[in-house]
Amino acid sequence: MLKVKIFGACGYGGVGMIELLVRHPEADIVSLIDIENTALPISSVYPHLTGFCDLEIISPEKDNPGDGEANALFFATPDGVGMKWASRYLENGMKIVDYSGDFRFSTQEEYASYAGKIGKPSLHHAPELLERSVYGLTELNREAISGASLIGNPGCFAVATILALAPIVKARAVDIEKLICDAKTGVSGAGKKPSSAFHYPSRYENMNPYKVGMHQHAIEIENQLSIQAGADCKIILNTQVVPITRGIMVCAYAQLDENWDLDRVFDLYKDFYRNEPFVRILPLNQAPSSKDVRGSNFCLLSVHVDPDTGTCLIMGQIDNLVKGQAGSALQNMNLMHGLDETSGLYHPPMIP
Amino acid sequence: MLKVKIFGACGYGGVGMIELLVRHPEADIVSLIDIENTALPISSVYPHLTGFCDLEIISPEKDNPGDGEANALFFATPDGVGMKWASRYLENGMKIVDYSGDFRFSTQEEYASYAGKIGKPSLHHAPELLERSVYGLTELNREAISGASLIGNPGCFAVATILALAPIVKARAVDIEKLICDAKTGVSGAGKKPSSAFHYPSRYENMNPYKVGMHQHAIEIENQLSIQAGADCKIILNTQVVPITRGIMVCAYAQLDENWDLDRVFDLYKDFYRNEPFVRILPLNQAPSSKDVRGSNFCLLSVHVDPDTGTCLIMGQIDNLVKGQAGSALQNMNLMHGLDETSGLYHPPMIP
Amino acid sequence: MLKVKIFGACGYGGVGMIELLVRHPEADIVSLIDIENTALPISSVYPHLTGFCDLEIISPEKDNPGDGEANALFFATPDGVGMKWASRYLENGMKIVDYSGDFRFSTQEEYASYAGKIGKPSLHHAPELLERSVYGLTELNREAISGASLIGNPGCFAVATILALAPIVKARAVDIEKLICDAKTGVSGAGKKPSSAFHYPSRYENMNPYKVGMHQHAIEIENQLSIQAGADCKIILNTQVVPITRGIMVCAYAQLDENWDLDRVFDLYKDFYRNEPFVRILPLNQAPSSKDVRGSNFCLLSVHVDPDTGTCLIMGQIDNLVKGQAGSALQNMNLMHGLDETSGLYHPPMIP
Amino acid sequence: MLKVKIFGACGYGGVGMIELLVRHPEADIVSLIDIENTALPISSVYPHLTGFCDLEIISPEKDNPGDGEANALFFATPDGVGMKWASRYLENGMKIVDYSGDFRFSTQEEYASYAGKIGKPSLHHAPELLERSVYGLTELNREAISGASLIGNPGCFAVATILALAPIVKARAVDIEKLICDAKTGVSGAGKKPSSAFHYPSRYENMNPYKVGMHQHAIEIENQLSIQAGADCKIILNTQVVPITRGIMVCAYAQLDENWDLDRVFDLYKDFYRNEPFVRILPLNQAPSSKDVRGSNFCLLSVHVDPDTGTCLIMGQIDNLVKGQAGSALQNMNLMHGLDETSGLYHPPMIP
User: Poorest-confidence range of A86-95, B175-184, B208-217, D249-258?
Assistant: First the structure.
């Protein structure tokens, strides 16, 4: 049985986890931690949780890592929080999944390069934890995750991009030094804090690239793909925002080697993901729609090869708040505690 | 003075032209032709036009090409209509811009390959008109357009993609055989006819690729870019729909030659479009937003080079119904009649 | 254990029921019936159901009411279908909930007046079933529903309007002959069939009243409120569409009697719904938001009294596809089979 | 010729005015004043204005009221700004339209009651200006506006509600003490400042009442309707937000006197507004859509009478940023300077 603390309960990532856990057959939420809204019941901040979760939000300082009440903790927090607070929970035997980039890297050097992209100090606050932390993309790292106590949950763009490219990169079927990922995200990826760019009148009927060629998720994508390939991968990640709340659609382009063709790529993908509960390869000549993953933990992929240019095109869809965040985190936590990894997660999207 | 007939008045393309013309200082609409809503005033079909244009819609058979009332005609019609009706208007001295693919190609062979993609008979109905017709992308073809009497107005994706890629392709700064264009369109591009894919509940919060690698606009894009390059260009055009009504955003990727860098590309674009009234190159490190072209005839472009992969990325935005359709058509018609090409077109987008 | 047949599986009402039932702990779907998409698995029509429900859709003629496989049937069908097919299922001992107006009335006369509003023949096809059918607004009719075998599930506007007005009407606290309900619905209420009015480019940024003063749900609203009041109620129902997919917001206005004030109205509502699992009265000075019910079976209500005009204002929110349709239907079916009425229904909305 | 200064250039109200003026045949913008973005060209804040208006924004202190450059000034500012700065411009002979509530009232007492609703000090900063200021609803006050030098432009809800109710209230055809206005606004009415309530993920698919029974526009509505009626009018104004950017839809309900019927009401409205360039009465049995006013200065009205409850229902649509704000302001300014009041304003909405 999961006894869960959520650190960062009031952001979209925290609320998404609460929504999953209140329907999870083997989990209970025991504590909600945040720096905002302390001493209020979560259901006064998010009225839709009334009756499902009415716990009072407590400040980080008020929570006792040694109270023995919980065996699982999620840091649904921005960069820099998990690294400050993780050790005291680990010391008390709890297993942790952190949503941010704090534990996605194994060395201080890698972290420093990431930190530079997001304007954070290059020194990690708890470098000793980096080597025990595991990168939490379940489909590629299942075994390590099962045995881990500290997971760096992948970035939302990274989930979609890595799942889209891992098979052809691992098979070395493409030019791994010239990968392209054109990635469109819904607005919830930017969190719940209001800003001009996401003010309704500025965002409706509006799409635009942002952080062009600078998105911090590119680093973990290159890292993980390089591990798969056994050689250095290079990618340009072109992130864009569209007027959708939930969803990431990636279109990944790579130059296909001459001894590969569409059928072989298709077989590769079907085989690579054949036992995965949450990854689905669409039939040829179909393309995935974001409505077919909305609210669920699924990742849909489809493959295409353009004969004229020799380009291999992989298209993928996830719900950025589920498979791209809370869903992946829960999938990992299930594994870490010996539960079926789909527990509390295996349900269809909601249409329309 | 333009005296205009609009053939296909009731579609988005026809209405878009009416909206432009009622504010045009040198144009009058004299006739609205359609196969639907005949004998009704246009303002009963589109109430927002009341008082601005209340002409009765007449059927094609009822319109008299020799009535001497008009000197300009727009075929705001789907493929196959202009080719049937154009000659009788041309014979009467009128100048024509056709929105469809009917006159975008100079030979029967090229047309046949296009026709195959859209499921039309490969034989052109008026092949003799193909050689006198001119491809209507004003920025690349201004002189020919000025002297022409029959224009094949470019497809909406083609406008954005060609404007984005023409400079680097013409400069042979990139690998012209492996061009990639990831293109997102608003829903109005599919016209006003309702369908499941564009039913509000299916389309809100939904984005998806469609016609993957099969979009018919790829042909004219390759044609025109090849003319610019003086050699065969190859492109994969990956068209996607996002929940927006107006707008096309293209992200074009190409492998940059080693003797080029970002500054040189930037200078190239600024120079290439330096006298263009409707094309604007954004400063470096900015990316265009669709809200900044909505309702206007502008095309915004920005350039970026990814040092790791050597990819040149060009991002472009147009309003698919203006610069992508009626606006370009009017820009051409202005030119054909010796008017300032910006007449009736030079106004800012509407925000928010 | 519910063994369920869904007649009309391919509409939003059918799919909504499938989505609920695949997570229902005490229900199995045994048969999907429709006149469209027969012989196809439902998951090829709705890919998001893949793995959750892959049953083949069969035609009405192919389904055997006497196969003994099911004890529950939902007619998720338009007006006129249930009345044709219900008897043969009832004869085989099945319990039925019909989504349409077919069984919302107890007499042929009432039905005829409803049928007139929707352009249907005034003669009911199975008038003998009218007297055994029960109006399925659970909160007002729980006991009768529990013992019934045939339920006319309420219309979506009716659910929200009746729940909003029942307490003050029953208490005779207002002028029951001059009730006003200003009701806004999301687009999914019109079903999945594409039409001009709900084509994305026509519907985004667009709101409008429709069927002004003519909506067919007004009849059942007046019927049910009159039963509560023990006297004839009269209401004007002004239905409007807004660019939302899911949701109904009602603002009901009534002239408050002089011996009533806000506190008394508030107490009345809290008391009236005090044991209801799905109806919630907000604290004073709050108003409900549709996001707080989206995807759930809840109805949120708030009350307000305007001292200047003496108007009592009741505001309500439901998800039209859940509490307004499939959710209410399942709530009723649970009751009819002696299950907890919240079974498979008690979960929070999804935010954002 | 209008020579215009815009005070508060960077809000939606300022930008809306700029968009109108750059196409106005008899107006030039000579100065843009704001407390934000000073020393920047407006086109760097709003890139879509590039080439149309590139004036530098100056701070209020930097602008010289006596520079003789302008004869018209718009305060496109929140409450409290115009009252501080107006006199020095008036003293220099300029004519002023203020968007806020500062000059909508003729006495300090009325202002105080308004100020209380918006949390402002009850003392007006320039009470001597109140008696010379004129309420700027053109259709009802044309003559006074023509001769005025200081206009309090009406609130957006007030424009729609007063235009909807003025005829029946003036005719005393309804119970003027029990008026109801159910009013839905798009999000732009709240301005460009980001907030939680208007963050895209919170606002999409979300509608809710706000300021229930407390909206400050109710005061001016009652004032103006009372002037029309020659007796005290009372109204409940129930304001709601829907996920639209531009648009206000009002549904006004009033108890119709027995000697009135639908035809008489319809004739009354047609007659009342028969010479108005921007107000249109729809044919019976039609209802207005917000798309038919979007981007324009029109107000569409339709009337309906419910025979059962005796309710008269008036439905109205405006674009809150045009007829509800900048458009009305310009209409007034045109009048004040002896121009045709439609100058720069008479153009159709944009569809789709």
Answer: B208-217
B and C: number of Cβ contacts within 8 A? 55
Residue of D nearest to A246 (CA): D201
Residues C300-311 pLDDT 10s: 999 999 999 999
Give helix B138-146 / helix B156-170 axis angle, nearest 10°.
Answer: 100
Cβ atoms of B145 and B332 within 8 Å: the answer is yes
User: What pLDDT is recorded for position A214?
Assistant: 86
Of D12, D204, D245, the CB nearest to A245: D204
Q: What is the mean pLDDT of residues A91-96?
A: 98
Q: Which residues contact C348 (CB under 8 A, 6 or more apart)?
A: A19, A22, A48, A49, A52, C296
Instruction: Please name the member of C205, C246, C287 whose beta carbon is closest to the beta carbon of D208.
Output: C287
Q: How far apart are CA A163 and CA A148, in angstroms?
A: 21
Residues of C in Cβ contact (< 8 Å) with A290? none
Catalytic residue among D10, D53, D156, D299: D156
Q: What is the pLDDT of residue D213?
A: 79
Per-residue pLDDT band at C261 (split at 50, 70, 90): very high
pLDDT at C254: 98
- Chain C residue with minimal CA distance to B12? C201
Q: Is the peptide bond before A47 cis (omega within 30 degrees of 0)?
A: no
What's residue D274's pLDDT?
98
Which residues of chain A lie closer than 8 angstroms to C190, CB-CB?
Answer: none
Residue B255's DSSP bridge partners are B311
Tally the residues of chain D. Answer: 352
Domains assigned to chain D? 2-132 (3.40.50.720), 157-320 (3.30.360.10)
Give the confidence band of B213 by pLDDT, cuts at 50, 70, 90.
Answer: confident
Distance (Å, whole) CA D341 – CA D335: 5
For chain D, how far is it from start to end, CA to CA, in angstroms? 34
Of B202, B209, B243, the CB nearest to A315: B209
CB contact under 8 A, B315 and A202: no
Kindly determine whether residue C198 and residue B194, on different chains, have CB atoms separated by under 8 Å.
yes
Site from C46, C192, C199, C350 to mutate, B interface, most B CB atoms within 10 angstroms: C199
**Do the Cβ atoms of D293 and B48 come within 8 Å?**
yes
Report the pLDDT averaged over residues C112-118.
94
Identify which of C186, C247, C253 has the shortest CB distance to residue D253.
Answer: C253
Task: List all chains that touch chain B, counting a touch as 3 or more CB pairs closer than 8 Å.
Answer: A, C, D
Residues A195, D202 contacting (CB under 8 angstroms) = no
Q: Is the ipTM of this complex over 0.90?
A: yes
Residue D214: which pLDDT band, with cuts at 50, 70 and 90? confident
CA angle D263, D291, D209 (to 5 degrees): 85
Q: Which residue of C has its CA nearest to B201?
A: C245
Q: Which residues of B touch D295 (CB under 8 A)?
A: 295, 350
Mean pLDDT of chain D: 97
Give the model's pLDDT for residue C213: 79
Cα atoms in the 13 Å half-sphere on the side-chain side of B298:
26
Return the residue of D nearest to C203 by Cα. Answer: D291
Sort out which chain A residues have CB atoms less than 8 A from B243's CB and list them.
Answer: 242-244
- To the query of whether residue D10 is one of the catalytic residues in this protein, the response is no
Give the pLDDT mean for B87-100.
98
Q: What is the mean pLDDT of residues C200-208?
A: 98
**pLDDT (tens digit per residue) in C171-196:** 999 999 999 999 999 999 999 999 99
Kindly list the residues from chain A whose CB atom is less than 8 angstroms away from the CB atom of residue C188.
352
User: Region C205-216: what's the mean pLDDT?
Assistant: 93
Nearest CA among D25, D12, D8, D23 for reference residue D340: D25
Angle at D179 between CA D174 and CA D185, to 5 degrees: 130
Provide φ and ψ at A349, rounded to 5°: -60, 165
